């Protein structure tokens, strides 16, 4: 018997009549290639709760794909935006400079890992941050090659798509791709050979990377390695610390820049402000977006000052890069995260989620692994008999969850992973209710399947 729901209410059905009408209109005017994870049209949102146009209320475990660590509509951000709107909206930093851009650039140089002088440029999206980071790395080194990793995700632009590993839905029939991009193997600890210890597996993966520089591209031709410290779209894969440090040290040996893609891992999600901290590295360049500004479109590239100064005026940036609205929102978000210790809160949330699913793992052999750092955690599902990815089960779980009032996303190259990206301001009561609902859905779906 399910507990009484305090926060969730889906009495109107999902979608309800207003939502269904809007879906039909959406089909008429919006291309099908613009995907949607849920048939929900949002009317309002606050904290970790979302209300749709039919009055249904959901607990948000997706956070706009990791964009809302500070929650929906944080009052501090709303007030900062209102105050900025009364001053000016967008004079364009390339034409008329403004203080919020410089203030945010300064703040990001202070909070990102690295005990060296840094500088920051601002853009609009995660993909733009990646594109500019690569341009800067190539300009600084004079080398063309960029290495990313299997299962990595770095955006949907041409270069971002070229660096991304998952073919469908991101790359299928959209080539040719950008030249001088290469993909090395990334660890997948769940699939570690049983004969290997964890340390042996990590060292094996480092040797694979060393061999890659012999068989695929010479290090003298590589400008940068770009790595998500924890893979996001790839399934929330947490690599061994010694692997990340091994690749980092190899980069140092060959004067290859190390770009840490912290677009999904940044701003408190993993229990630290930036995930690179967990691995004891100081990246040459860090890319940031998503939760930097509570949903305002802004991104950043922060790196060693001498590297960031390599491009000449006009070679990086863009008309809307670092908009005043995004800057003041980001400054308000960072201040809130520091004041309320949302990184510490992420650790509490993650511990609760992982403990919950570890307990369920004993009852449901379809749960292959519960993993993650901080509140960036996930559950991978496989068929316990065939050991094949349980993609259909996860599709049923995500559907059953939103129909029951919890919005959650899948991930992984096989789409057999549930990933959790709830706002870090979620209350314990909301978290427990969402987990209770997900448990009910799992029990019903697993029996069905």
UniProtKB/TrEMBL annotation:
Keyword vocabulary terms for this entry: Aminotransferase, Pyridoxal phosphate, Transferase
Record SUPFAM superfamilies: PLP-dependent transferases
Pfam families: Aminotran_3
GO MF entry, a single one: 4-aminobutyrate:2-oxoglutarate transaminase activity
Pathway(s) served: Amino-acid degradation; 4-aminobutanoate degradation
GO biological process, one term: gamma-aminobutyric acid metabolic process
Cofactor: pyridoxal 5'-phosphate
CDD domains: OAT_like
Coiled-coil features, chain-numbered ranges: none
Enzyme class (EC, first level): transferase
InterPro entries named among the record's database cross-references: 4NH2But_aminotransferase_bac, Aminotrans_3, Aminotrans_3_PPA_site, Class-III_PLP-dep_AT, PyrdxlP-dep_Trfase, PyrdxlP-dep_Trfase_major, PyrdxlP-dep_Trfase_small
Entry keyword NADP: no
Reactions catalysed: (S)-3-amino-2-methylpropanoate + 2-oxoglutarate = 2-methyl-3-oxopropanoate + L-glutamate; 4-aminobutanoate + 2-oxoglutarate = succinate semialdehyde + L-glutamate
Enzyme Commission no: 2.6.1.19, 2.6.1.22
Family matches, as PANTHER family: AMINOTRANSFERASE CLASS III (PTHR11986), LEUCINE_METHIONINE RACEMASE (PTHR11986:SF58)
Record family assignment: Belongs to the class-III pyridoxal-phosphate-dependent aminotransferase family.
Protein name: (S)-3-amino-2-methylpropionate transaminase
């Amino acid at each position: 018997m399910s507990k009484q729901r305090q926060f969730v209410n889906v009495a109107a059905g999902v979608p309800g009549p207003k939502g269904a009408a809007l879906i039909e209109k959406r089909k008429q005017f919006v291309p099908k290639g613009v995907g949607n994870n849920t048939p929900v049209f949002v009317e309002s949102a606050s904290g970790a709760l979302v209300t749709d146009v039919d009055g249904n209320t959901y607990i948000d475990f997706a956070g706009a794909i990791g964009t809302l660590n500070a929650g929906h509509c944080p009052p501090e951000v709303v007030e900062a935006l209102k105050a900025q709107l009364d001053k000016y909206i967008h004079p364009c930093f390339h034409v008329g400079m403004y203080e919020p851009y410089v203030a945010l650039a300064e703040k990001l140089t202070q909070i990102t890992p690295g005990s060296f002088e840094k500088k920051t440029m601002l853009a609009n999206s995660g993909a733009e941050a990646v594109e500019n980071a690569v341009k800067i790395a190539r300009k600084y080194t004079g080398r063309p090659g960029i290495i990313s990793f299997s299962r990595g995700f770095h955006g949907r632009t041409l270069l971002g798509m070229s660096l991304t590993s998952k073919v469908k839905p991101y790359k299928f029939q959209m080539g040719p791709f950008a030249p001088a991009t290469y993909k090395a193997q990334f660890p997948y600890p769940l699939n570690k050979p049983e004969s290997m210890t964890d340390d042996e597996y990590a060292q094996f993966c480092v040797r694979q990377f060393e061999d890659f520089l012999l068989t695929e591209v010479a290090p003298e031709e590589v400008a940068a390695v770009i790595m998500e410290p924890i893979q996001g779209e790839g399934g929330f894969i947490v690599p061994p610390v010694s692997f990340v440090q091994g690749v980092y040290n190899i980069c140092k040996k060959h004067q290859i820049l190390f770009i840490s893609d912290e677009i999904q891992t940044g701003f408190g999600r993993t229990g630290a402000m930036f995930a690179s901290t967990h691995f004891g590295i100081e990246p040459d360049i860090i890319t940031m977006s998503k939760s930097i500004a509570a949903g305002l479109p802004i991104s950043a590239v922060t790196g060693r000052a001498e590297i960031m100064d390599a491009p000449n005026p006009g070679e990086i940036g863009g008309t809307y890069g670092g908009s005043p609205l995004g800057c003041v929102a980001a400054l308000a978000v960072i201040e809130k995260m520091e004041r309320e210790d949302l990184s510490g809160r992420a650790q509490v949330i993650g511990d609760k989620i992982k403990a919950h699913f570890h307990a369920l793992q004993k009852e449901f052999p379809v749960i292959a692994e519960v993993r993650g750092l901080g509140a960036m955690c996930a559950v991978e599902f496989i068929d316990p008999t065939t050991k094949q990815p349980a993609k259909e089960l996860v599709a049923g779980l995500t559907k059953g969850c939103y129909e029951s009032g919890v919005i959650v996303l899948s991930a992984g190259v096989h789409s057999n992973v549930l990933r959790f990206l709830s706002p870090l301001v979620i209350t314990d009561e909301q978290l427990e209710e969402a987990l209770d609902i997900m448990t009910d859905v799992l029990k019903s779906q697993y029996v069905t399947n």
